[in-house]
Amino acid sequence: MTKPRTPPLLEFRNVTVIKGEKNVLDSVSVSIDEGEHIAILGPNGAGKSSFIKAVNREYYPQPRDDTVFRIRGEEFWDVFTMRSFIGIVSNDLQYTYTREVSGREVILSGFFSSIGLFNHTITMAMEARTDEILKFLEIEPLQERQMSAMSSGEARRFLIGRALVHNPAALILDEPTNSLDLHALHTFRKLVRKIARAGTGIILVTHNLHDIIPEIDRIILMKDGQFVGDGTKEEMLTDRKTGGLFNVPVHVRKEGDWYYATGY
Fold first, then answer.
1. CA nearest 36: which of 55, 8, 14, 57?
2. Which residues are CB-contacts of 202 (< 8 A; sequence separation ≥ 6)?
3. Rounded distance between C-alpha atoms, residue 7 and residue 70, angstroms
4. In this predicted model, which residue has the larger pLDDT, 161 or 118?
5. I need a surface site. Which of 12, 65, 236, 258 has the fewest CB within 10 A?
């Protein structure tokens, strides 16, 4: 007997989102399977953050007969349930968490999709899972430090821990290396590779080629609210396609398993 095919993790077809008078997503179509490691690459203003907000059900598409807007084969989800299998780390979330709350509390708050713990009841299982994540992310010594006293890189790792509490199928990282220095960038890239190798799908949203870890083998190019390319790194990360995406002449070079843009 043939085993039924698992629905894609994300399936968008002809998804249009309008904010004000602008199509921030313009007839976007994409299918992403569970376990895939992909990068969505595009300039600022391309619609990358709007795509994430659509995934997170902050944005909904214009109603059309030919629109498909599914996660795991379902059109509608309780937001809290959905967040248990798609973890999202964004710069907006990091800004919100610049406050007097410890790193450990940040991770624990992921169980409740809250900012802080308030009067939530913490179970022994939650504490144990938090200990596992602290060890896995190698941030145990920082767990009692306040988020407001952490560097950007340190805080980002605790937000990743928050997103991992439910062992999600995919982790979405929105412009994850903004404001990171070279040391923090090196640490962050090692961490994301470790998460990918542990079996969590990575959906990396970025405008930097050097963010694209070797485990990522699919690149989606985004510009003006549309996906304008979708293929392997070798197919998408070329001088012509990358230069056209950012409207600047570039030379894309490969060093080992990493890609860099120079010459602009």
1. 8
2. 37, 38, 170, 171, 173, 192, 195, 196, 213, 215, 216
3. 9
4. 161
5. 65
Residue with tokens 């602009």: 264
Pairing of strands 68-71, 10-19: antiparallel
Listed residue (130, 126, 154) closest to 142, CA to CA: 154
Sign of CA dihedral 242, 209, 194, 10: negative
Task: For the chain, state the CA radius of gyration.
Answer: 19
DSSP 155: H
Q: What is the pTM (predicted TM-score) of this model?
A: 0.92
Q: Strand, helix or coil at 63?
A: coil
Long-range contacts from 258-261, C-beta under 8 angstroms, 24+ separation: 258/210, 258/212, 258/214, 259/209, 259/210, 259/212, 259/233, 260/209, 260/210, 261/209
Q: Could you tell me if 225 and 45 are in contact, meaning their C-beta atoms sit under 8 angstroms apart?
A: no
- 161 within some domain: yes
Helix (H, G, I), strand (E, B) or coil at 247: coil
Q: What amino acid occupies position 55? A: V
Contact 177, 208 (CB under 8 A): yes
Average per-residue pLDDT in the chain?
A: 91
Cα–Cα distance, 107 to 161 (Å, whole number): 6
Predicted pLDDT at 2: 52
Residue with tokens 């659509």: 54
Domain total in the chain = 1
The rounded distance, in Å, linking the Cα atoms of 91 and 83 is 17
Q: In this structure, is residue 260 part of a structural domain?
A: no
